[in-house]
Structures are given as structure tokens and as C-alpha cells.
Design a protein that fits this description.
The complex is a heterodimer of chains A (226) and B (84). Chain A is α/β, with parallel strands linked by helices. Chain A has a single domain (2-225), classed as 3-Layer(aba) Sandwich (Rossmann fold), CATH 3.40.50.880. Helices cover 20% and strands 26% of the residues of chain A. Chain A is globular. Chain B has a three-stranded antiparallel β-sheet, covered by helices on one side. Chain B has 84 residues and is an alpha+beta fold. Chain B is 33% helix and 30% strand. Chain B is built from two helices and three strands. The chains are: A alpha/beta (226), B alpha+beta (84). Chain A binds chain B through residues 57-58, 61-62, 65, 94, 99-101, 103-108, 146, 148-150, 153, 182, and chain B through 18-19, 21-22, 25, 69-71, 73, 75-76.
């Protein structure tokens, strides 16, 4: 597994995601946003968390049009794997690689806390190390994670089984309280039509070592590296 | 601004039905200031642009491309173009 992590001005989680990928056995390269190609042999392109371009205009809007994103789009069109975490999810939506948009959190607050997610689907390159319905303990840290899509788009995403993770309580129930940012249908992450692109607001890369407080994020990186 | 340029203003607003937490917060702040009679607030963005040339039709086409490609996210936002 060769992963290319794209770094934009204002990205700040590239080192964490690179570390999580390496722990699972992946080879990792960093790619600058102005680069027009991914390294030869790239299997997975990663858009890390952070505040690309200071969140100017809209979160992910300017990064979504960066030169490196043309290469990421071409990679995805060839069936290549793409993972966007937090700001990376916002960039994927802004670049048109995933449908919908991440709006301001419903309570207007930046939220930063541990969060349980329910794994909705496991027959993908990103989640095969998990079991369906498994509740995983990770973290969220964002101000704009409120997933929104037009009703027809949302119905299509649900109908095609493209929801990757939902915010839930410890028992796996998708309650209003567990859905702190107000996302439609408690959506925490979605797949592209071919399930080769995954965008998610929570940070699995935060929880890959017990010393840090949890290891439930590890399944995602192990799924990819396997 | 050169003499052969036009001034344009683009207004980007949230589509109706899209939740606007910032607008709601502003509405509540206005109420707390004792400014009564405001029944709703929706927050948007304004862009003032200078467009080269004097051809308003060509300028409008350029601005429309700018809105579609960057200035507005048409999933949740509408835009309006005015050329002075």
C-alpha cells in the first residue's frame, strides 16, 4: 500500500495520518497542493484534516480547486482509493468527488470530543477490518461537520448503501444527542458510488495507539493496508 | 480600476430550507439588543469584482462561471449577479 498525503496550506493533521498509515504497514509520501501529479504507484490519496486556506470562502472550497486535486480526481476516476478526513471530507464535497456539503454545526460551536460511530458497511477497502454494526470509539474536532444534501441526493446515498459511519451512542443508537453537529441521518462519513472514495468528519488517526487513549481507529488503516 | 472595466457585485445567499445557524444567532443577538420587529435573518456573502472590458454580456458569462466554479456552492447557495 502506497499512500500519498496531500498537504495544503493550513493542513495540520498530515503527520498524524501518515503515522497511522505507517503503523499499519503503508508506505507514505507527502504531496504538495501545487503538485500536478501523485507519485507513481500511489494506491491511496489522503486529504488530511486541518484548516486549508484558513477556511476562507467555505471550508475546503479553495483546496477543492487546487492543482493536486485534478490529480486526485483522475486517480479516483481510475478507481484509485481516496480518503478525506475532517477538512479532507469538506474538500471532497467541494471538489465534487462526494455529494453534499458540510455546513456549520447546528449549535454553532466547534466541537472536540470522543465520539462513538456505528460502522454501516464493511464490504469496502476502508472498513473490512470492522464488523457491520460495530460501535467504534474515535474523536471529532470540527466547526463545520453538519452533513447536508438535497433530499433526492440523500435518498440516493441511503438507497445505494453509501453511508460509511453514523454518529451513535455507546449502545449503537443514532440519537439526537449523539448527533452533535446536526448532520442529516446522523451521517459521519459517506462513500462514492464505487466505494473507492471515503469522506468522514471523525478522526480515526487519533486513536491508533493505546497510549493515546484508544485503538478503534486502527481498523480503518489496517483495512487499507491489508 | 482601469477605465475599461466594469464593476460587478455578486450576492451569495443560502437557499430556502437550508438551516442557517449563523443567521439564527444574529437574529437572537438583535432581539437581545432590544431591536424588535425582525422576524428572520439569513446571512449571505457579497463579492465586489472588477471585470475587464465593456461587454456586459461577456462579463456576465465570466461571472456566472466564477459563481458556478468557486464563489457559490450551488448545493446550498443561490447567487445573483449585478453589473453596474
Amino acid at each position: 500500500m502506497h499512500a500519498a498525503v496531500v498537504v495544503f496550506p493550513g493542513s495540520n493533521r498530515e503527520a498524524d495520518v501518515a503515522r497511522a498509515l505507517r503503523l499499519s504497514g503503508a508506505k507514505v509520501s507527502l504531496v504538495w497542493h501545487a503538485d500536478t501529479a501523485l507519485p507513481a504507484g500511489t494506491d491511496l490519496a489522503v486529504l488530511p484534516g486541518g484548516f486549508s486556506y484558513g477556511d476562507y470562502l467555505r471550508c475546503g472550497a479553495i483546496a477543492g480547486r487546487a492543482a493536486a486535486m485534478d490529480a486526485v480526481r483522475a486517480h479516483a476516476a481510475r478507481g484509485g482509493l481516496v480518503l478525506g478526513i475532517c477538512n479532507g471530507f469538506q474538500i471532497l464535497c467541494e471538489s465534487g468527488l462526494l455529494p453534499g456539503v458540510l455546513m456549520r454545526n447546528v449549535d454553532r460551536r466547534f466541537i472536540c470530543h470522543r465520539q462513538t460511530l456505528r460502522v454501516e458497511r464493511t464490504n469496502t477497502r476502508f472498513a473490512r477490518a470492522y464488523t457491520k454494526g460495530q460501535v467504534i470509539d474515535v474523536c471529532v474536532a470540527h466547526g463545520e461537520g453538519n452533513y447536508f444534501a438535497e433530499p433526492e441526493t440523500l435518498a440516493r446515498i441511503e438507497g445505494e448503501g453509501r453511508v460509511a459511519f453514523r454518529y451513535c451512542d455507546a449502545a449503537g443508537q443514532t440519537t439526537v444527542e449523539a448527533n452533535r453537529n446536526g448532520s442529516l441521518n446522523s451521517i459521519a462519513g459517506i462513500y462514492s458510488e464505487g466505494a473507492n472514495v471515503l469522506g468522514m468528519m471523525p478522526h480515526p488517526e487519533n486513536f491508533v495507539e493505546g497510549l493515546i487513549g484508544g485503538t478503534d481507529g486502527r481498523g480503518l488503516f489496517e483495512s487499507l493496508a491489508a | 480600476m482601469s477605465s475599461s472595466a466594469m464593476k460587478a457585485r455578486i450576492t451569495v445567499t443560502l437557499k430556502s430550507g437550508v438551516l442557517d445557524p449563523q443567521g439564527k444567532a444574529i437574529e437572537a443577538a438583535l432581539k437581545s439588543l432590544g431591536i424588535d420587529g425582525i422576524e428572520g435573518v439569513r446571512q449571505g456573502k457579497v463579492f465586489d469584482l472588477e471585470v475587464a472590458g465593456t461587454d456586459a454580456t461577456a462579463a456576465r458569462a465570466t461571472l456566472q462561471t466564477a459563481c458556478e466554479k468557486l464563489l457559490a456552492n450551488t448545493v446550498v447557495e443561490n447567487y445573483a449577479i449585478e453589473i453596474a
